[in-house]
Sequence to fold (70 residues):
Amino acid sequence: MSKNRRRLDIVGDMLSIMSVRVRKTKIMYQANLNYNLLEKYLKDLLESGLVECDVDSYYLITSKGKKFLQ
Fold:
């Protein structure tokens, strides 16, 4: 019997993981997401300004994301 997580729980997990610079693979495994869900959530987080991606494809939480996480 599995327990489904809510969207807010998944976003919170992802933001916590991105408190340090990480790549997609680490986010995917630590947040326990498949690639398609990871892409969907990352797109939403980037568009809302909660995370940013640098030129080396590393993701990091923004100050807006830190406020959201609190």
